[in-house]
Amino acid sequence: MSAQVKGPASYFPSIEKKYGRPVAEWKELIRSSPLTRHMDLVTWLKTEHGLGHGHANALVAHTLAEKG
């Protein structure tokens, strides 16, 4: 029996399927961006890369949480 993924990571399979790029690539884009604020990054992903709000928010939240 496998544990169910919760939180932002639960969006990762649908993000990869919908946008055709691995999550690691999205996270690298976020890390390499000069933007640092959560909502600025979400807006950037939505406007420049066409992500939906929930997907962009999940990627940013997970990536920023890794930074500490």
TrEMBL record:
Xref: InterPro entries: DUF4287
* Full protein name: DUF4287 domain-containing protein
